[in-house]
Amino acid sequence: MPRPRSQKVELVTQKLRTRLQAGVHRPGERFLSTRELESTFGISYQTAHRVLGELCGEGLLERRAGSGTFIPGGIVDLQGVQLIMNPRANIPKSFGARLLEDLTQRLDNDRISWKLSWTDGTERVSRTRLPILWEAREALRECGASNRCALLLNDRPRPGLESALIDSVSIDDFSGGASAAGLLKNVAPRQSRFVVVTGPEEDSRSQDRRDGFLSVCEDARVVVAGSWFLEDGTKVAPTVVREGVDGIFCCNDRLAEAVWRWCETHECPLPPLIGFDNAPIAESLDLTTIAIPWDDMITGALDVVKKRLSGGGGAARQLILTPLPIIRRL
């Protein structure tokens, strides 16, 4: 009769089972080796081997000949990427339009197959392609619920399990807001009255850009547009452009465009104005803006894509880029 397992071995097995069921490991990630289990938990090599075999039998791990033990799944067999984009990418000269154009051009240049889906459709996240998400919250939740890996652009995953699975390439928005404040202080009188125009109240990017600006200009007036759209910026423009305003920072270029257009239409002097993103509209208006480093963002995204498509596991990558001021006219 085989000798019953000790309480210690039962405890080690249950600890590992709980750890694997919690979903903190990425699909395709290498797990602890037999030797690592032996030294970590103080059990014999043979016992460690049996524990791993039991967890493999439960489907919580899988052994790959000559390679080791891995978390099941992964992206080894994915045939390309699925771009899941908000329909705002259809707006000419918008941030999303430039992101989509630059990204697909690089994917084509690197001969990486891609498929485009929109967040307003009924198409689900593909199981045969790596999802690349922009403004696609439902798709992000679907990836998290099914323990799927994905790449998030111009945003960061929430702390916790989501951040363990989702790669991201994002911007240091707080630093960008602080840079905008510094630029305005350089051109405004010593006792200045500044305004910050924010986007969606629940959007962390808008919050960080606002807070970065207020960290330098703490007395600035905050006007909430409520979205990133030109139309909502136009609604609040009369409130923004009050007599005596010495400078305006808008949390994206579309909101800055709204202020610009309103002043032009009403023949009102335009105060020093700064946007954020360096979307194509900023260049058209000769607008000073806090620029997203586009080349670095696309290159960072492609590096992640290539790694994941080649079967690369490991911890999720959170690449945070610093935006740079582009001074055109103030």
Characterise the protein shown here.
42% of the residues lie in helices and 18% in strands. Helix 1 packs across helix 3 (45-57), helix 2 (34-41) packs across helix 3 (45-57) and helix 9 (230-240) packs across helix 10 (253-265). It folds into three domains: 7-70, Winged helix-like DNA-binding domain superfamily/Winged helix DNA-binding domain (Arc Repressor Mutant, subunit A); 81-172 and 294-326, Response regulator (Rossmann fold, 3-Layer(aba) Sandwich); 173-291, 3-Layer(aba) Sandwich (Rossmann fold), CATH 3.40.50. It has helices spanning 7-21, 34-41, 45-57, 95-109, 137-145, 161-165, 173-187, 204-216, 230-240, 253-265, 280-285, 294-309; strands spanning 62-64, 68-70, 81-85, 114-118, 130-134, 150-153, 166-171, 194-198, 221-224, 247-250, 273-277, 288-291, 318-321, 324-326. A six-stranded parallel beta sheet has the order 4-3-5-6-7-13, sandwiched between helices. Strands 9-8-10-11-12-14 form a six-stranded mixed beta sheet, with helices on both faces. Helix 11 links the parallel strand 11 (273-277) and strand 12. It is an alpha/beta fold. The mean pLDDT is 89. The longest helix is centred in the C-terminal third of the chain and has 16 residues, at 294-309.
